[in-house]
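Need a sequence for this fold. Nothing fancy.
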């Protein structure tokens, strides 16, 4: 599973990354996690508010830290 967290490095972006890593570990899901911090690259996904989350090329979240339940659903899908 290829996951990108879009954001300029704010605390919400860091919290999102930490939460995704934690839940992936708990579920035993192998992920590739990358941070996208360049504003031009973030906007290329059409995301206007960060943090944004892209899974396998598809934007699944934008604006604020996603809930634990929401992240777990991504791994269950």
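Here you go.
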């Amino acid at each position: 599973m290829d996951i990108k967290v879009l954001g300029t490095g704010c605390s919400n972006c860091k919290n999102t990354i930490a939460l995704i890593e934690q839940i992936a570990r708990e579920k035993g899901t192998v992920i590739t996690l990358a941070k996208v911090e360049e504003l031009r690259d973030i906007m290329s996904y059409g995301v206007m508010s960060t943090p944004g989350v892209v899974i396998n090329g598809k934007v699944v979240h934008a604006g604020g830290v996603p809930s634990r339940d929401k992240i777990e659903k991504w791994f269950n899908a």
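For context: The beta strands are 2-6, 32-36, 52-55, 58-62.
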